[in-house]
Structure formats: structure tokens, C-alpha cells
Amino acid sequence: MDTRRTDMQDAIERLFELTRAGQTDSSEFEQLDHLVQQRLREAYAGTPPPARAVA
């Protein structure tokens, strides 16, 4: 099993728990938020943003 994927899933679940509990000003939240954003940037690096529909 891919431990990086499992670790990321755990991080996202914990980030969600902290958000639901209103603990978004904690250092743990900031660290997890940074980690998730960094991984998203890595995953989508070089990928053009999706086209927006114009109404």
C-alpha cells in the first residue's frame, strides 16, 4: 500500500476534524493545511487551470 497516500488521507481527515471543531487557529491546523496545499501544488504542477464557463 502507498504510505504517502495513506498519510495524506490521514492528514486530510485530521484537517477536517480540526475545522469542524473550530480549531483553525492552531499550529497543527496550519501545518496540515500547508502540507495539503503543497501536495496539491505538486500533483497539479504544470497542469493548466480548468476553463471557466461564461454565462
Structural shape: extended
| Biggest pleated-sheet summary | none
Which quaternary structure do these chains form? single chain
Structural class: mainly alpha
Q: Which ranges are low-confidence, i.e. pLDDT below 50, for 5 or more consecutive residues?
A: none
Total strand segments: 0
The radius of gyration over CA amounts to 14 Å
Number of helices: 2
**Number of structurally distinct domains:** 1
Order of helices and strands: HH
Helix proportion: 55-70%
* Fraction in beta strands: under 5%
**How many angstroms does the end-to-end distance come to?**
44 Å
Instruction: Please tell me the overall pLDDT.
Output: 89
Any overview of this molecule?
The chain is mostly helical and 55 residues long. It has 2 helices and no strands. Helix 1 (3-20) packs across helix 2. The longest helix has 18 residues, at 3-20. The model has no long low-confidence stretch (mean pLDDT 89).
